[in-house]
Amino acid sequence: MKALVKTKAGFGNLELLDTETPSPNEDEIKIKVHYAGICGTDIHTYEGHYKVNFPVILGHEFSGEVVEVGTNITNFNIGDRVTSETTYYVCRECDYCQNGDYNLCNHRKGLGTQQNGGFTQYLVTPATSAHHIPDNVSYKAAAMTEPLACAHHAVSKIDIQPEDVVVVIGPGPIGLLVAQVVKSKGAKVIITGLNNDQARLNKANELNIDHVVNIQNTDLKSYVNKVTNGYGANVVLECSGAIPAAKQGLDILRKKGQYVQVGIFKDSEIPFNLEQIVQKELRIVGTRSQKPADWEPSLQLLSCGEVNAESLITNELDITQWTEGYDHIKSGEGIKVLLRPIE
């Protein structure tokens, strides 16, 4: 089968290769991929900024149908429509695994990073990681369950009350999904971006996000103070991974506000204003990927229509067209690109 394989470190080195079709072991299912989304992690891996096991088939956001099941599997049948968590292996013994925090297991191996992923025709995944797709959710939308689960995980890290004012910084795929998850909780959402985010800010308007702000045209702190009668935002979720955005996020929070760092910074060490955290008694929390508890709620958000993931798709391409998909995303015009396997 044809697959997009990251063959070695460095920029590029993503090749379309003939690879062996996998077979499931007794506890796995084999999935025929219908769609696989290009994630920011795939972009970073392509550019050489993210470490994976070489060689490996990239792609960890996908949907498809079951074509083979292991001998121990009773809850999936051939023809079932499924998506899967990215977890391929965890130790199941550490404190994190015992609490269901698989995303924090030191021995975790993920699909598309340490184990072959979805930029191909077939993959295998543990049945414990797979989820049935609701009947009214399309394969395209279901291919975005993983980033939605990441968004759900981020929002679950803090307490959001109806009528809270929540600022989402960064209108990329994760930011737009986070904004929709927050709205589902009844909060008022302000999403921000820059001039080169205009297509994404337009999408935020289409999704009926309460306030859409280009911070190169509008002073964000003044805007937030106006909306909150001078108190500041209850919650900030920083989804861009930009240092100025993080500093701004801390500044616009009200006293006793909550801050979630969702985006990944290019450099691991950044300067920040600890005095604000002390004087305003801010609560700061990080969020990493997703865990099993995030998946069924995410699929339910898709099913009930509170999250419109399919509307974020701006291009559909074959896996042979990686470069076109990469350029589309890097241009700032693209939001989410789905890749289709080839026979």
UniProtKB/TrEMBL annotation:
Is Oxidoreductase there in the keyword field? yes
An example of a GO molecular function for this protein is:
zinc ion binding
Q: Which SMART domains match?
A: PKS_ER
Q: Which family does it belong to?
A: Belongs to the zinc-containing alcohol dehydrogenase family.
Query: What keywords is this UniProt entry annotated with?
Result: Metal-binding, Oxidoreductase, Zinc
Keyword Disulfide bond among record annotations:
no
Can you name this protein?
Answer: Sorbitol dehydrogenase
Q: Which organism is it from?
A: Staphylococcus pseudoxylosus
Q: What positions does the domain Enoyl reductase (ER) occupy? A: 9-339
Question: InterPro entries attached here?
Answer: ADH-like_C, ADH-like_N, ADH_Zn_CS, ER, GroES-like_sf, NAD(P)-bd_dom_sf, Zn_alcohol_dh
| CC cofactor | Zn(2+)
